[in-house]
Amino acid sequence: MKVTLYSKSLTALGLAVGLGLGMHVSAAPETYTTEANHTFAEFSYNHLGLSNQTSRFNTVSGTITIDPTAKTGKADITIDTKSVDTSSSVFNSHIQAEDYLSTTQFPTAIFKADKFTFSGDKVTGMQGTLTLKGVSKPVTLEVTNFDCKKHPMFGVDFCGANAIAKVKRSEFNMGKNVPAVGDDVTIRIAIEAKKGS
Questions:
Q1: Is the Cβ–Cβ distance between 108 and 37 less than 8 Å?
Q2: Residue 119, strand partner residues
Q3: Would you say 99 and 174 are in contact if contact means Cβ atoms under 8 Å apart?
Q4: Widest Cα–Cα separation across the chain
Q5: Of the candidates 97, 104, 16, 24, which has an alpha carbon nearest to the alpha carbon of residue 60?
Q6: Nearest by Cα to 39 from 197, 190, 186
Q7: Is 38 strand, coil or helix?
Q8: Apex 20 CA angle, 10 and 116, nearest 5
Q9: Among candidates 176, 182, 178, 166, which has minimal Cα distance to 50?
């Protein structure tokens, strides 16, 4: 999944949640590329009124471009829908079938954001478009955590974020078993991204 942190979406896809932007980034727009081991998306929904189920997509990539001085940003995030992980191989196959993610026809979901919101020097949201199962809808990510700093192990500049969004799966042609299985889906995205490509 490609997240472009343009002084411009988690979040994608998140992107993420209560965003405190560390001002270690420079005044010019900078682009950050996701680090695979610490970037993923979770989704949760109510199952038959019995429990709230949480699963995740293990493969999320992209770029984020951000300019804290101009208070602008862009995000371009891709989710590999075949990387869905429900902790059950049987249910992984079930949720990838045509009634739900239909991953053979639609192997990716994409979130593109072209507007970031700030409170002071803190990013608080990303507005963009989520394309899932061939359907594109406007989605806003509430960013609850965001910081940029030199990574203590890699020794280069990183930005990280948590973001949350809520969608209705029926709006993306995945309405089977609504309302027995909840229509409302909460998406949470965690991103860590390295400056440059």
A1: no
A2: 122
A3: yes
A4: 50
A5: 16
A6: 190
A7: helix
A8: 50
A9: 182
Tokens 């608080």 found at: 124
Q: What class has domain 5-195?
A: mainly beta
Residue-level pLDDT, tens digit, the chain, 197 residues:
334 333 333 333 333 333 333 444 446 889 999 999 999 999 999 999 999 999 999 999 999 999 988 999 999 999 999 999 999 999 999 999 999 999 999 999 999 999 999 887 778 999 999 999 999 999 999 999 999 899 999 899 999 999 999 999 999 999 999 999 999 999 999 999 999 87
| pTM, rounded to two decimals | 0.82
Extract the tokens encoding 74: 């862009």
Alpha helices (H) along 69-140: 89-95
Give the Cβ contact number of residue 52 at 10 Å.
10
